[in-house]
Amino acid sequence: MRRLFFLTLLLASLAYSGEYWHIEKGASTMKILSMPTEPRQAALAGAGIASPANAGEAMRNPLAGAVANTPVLSFSRTEFSDLTGASRVSLLAGSVFGSWHLTAGIESLNYDKIEGYTEDGLTAEGLSFTAGTMATQLGIARNFSSMSAGLTARYANQNIDDYHMQGLLFDGGVKYNLLKNFAFGAIFNNLGWIFSDSKEIAPLSVQAGITASCALPLGFSGAVSADLYKRNDSAEELRTGLEIMYEELFSVRFGYYDALSMGFAVKFSSIAIEYAYQNRDVLEANHIFGVSLYF
Question: Is the pLDDT confidence value at 284 over 80?
Answer without folding.
Answer: no
